[in-house]
Amino acid sequence: MTGRTKVAVIGSGNIGTDLMIKVLRLSETLELAAMVGIDPNSDGLARAARLGVPTTAEGVDGLIAMPGFAEIAIVFDATSAPAHHANAAALAPYGKRLIDLTPAAIGPMVVPAVNLDDHLAAGNVNMVTCGGQATIPIVAALAAVVPVPYAEIVASIASRSAGPGTRANIDEFTETTSRAIVEVGGAGRGKAIIVLNPAEPPLIMRDTVLALVNAPDPVAQEAIRTAVAEMVERVAAYVPGYRLKQQVQLIAVDGRDYATLTGEPVTHQVSVLLEVEGAAHYLPAYAGNLDIMTSAALRMAEALAGSTQARKVSA
Questions:
Q1: Active site (annotated) includes residue 130
Q2: Could you tell me the residue range of the domain that residue 213 belongs to?
Q3: Domain count, the chain
């Protein structure tokens, strides 16, 4: 590799600002070439300017008009689902790689611990949701060892860590995460719930995975516990605050009670309780929902940058 891959961040709110700081502090392969917003008085744009990052308050049109736009290879979109549709359309003629941190899900959904390498050629990849990034790895770990006809996740985040973009995307959160539980996680059916917890002081992000599985013998049950533990380590490699809150629980159930829900035999309900503590790059440590999204997006961008450089070298 020669030089760093230039990237831009659209969205100067909580997620975009946290992502900006991560790129500047943590990445050895990415160079932040632009911070884009629509509010000239936003804290994110002010911080970017103080850090020497080129800024525009004219949205995606302002980004396209910036002198260094042609050199930018990857664009992060940390706005909202409706805004991403407009931003993707505006950027389409320019051949940029897009990493979508909204629930718009125009392109394939990526959870780095599960399918990082599957979509490196895609022009627009979607990072699902904060709850999806936290829980889908667990669903995928279960599905790798036993059938998972049904999985349900509950993401509880501090109300203070939910900015306007998050609040505007509640419906899209449930729809996109539910779909990703099936398409990425491998469950037969999926359901997602998000809770904005108003508790004071704010609580750290908590996530619960409830799955109905067919694990009739001790060997299968031990395989479940091992797979979950290994997956937690894999996610924690790029989200250091990601951890199990308690031991994995398996409760025997009568499969006949769930026949209409699963459509196939189940023997146990698996309960996995997780906690995600943020790195406090921008908001305090309770904002694990920000940290896991921006950490996953950074991991994806570095993989895309490496893939692009590898293709250039081979050519």
A1: yes
A2: 130-286
A3: 2
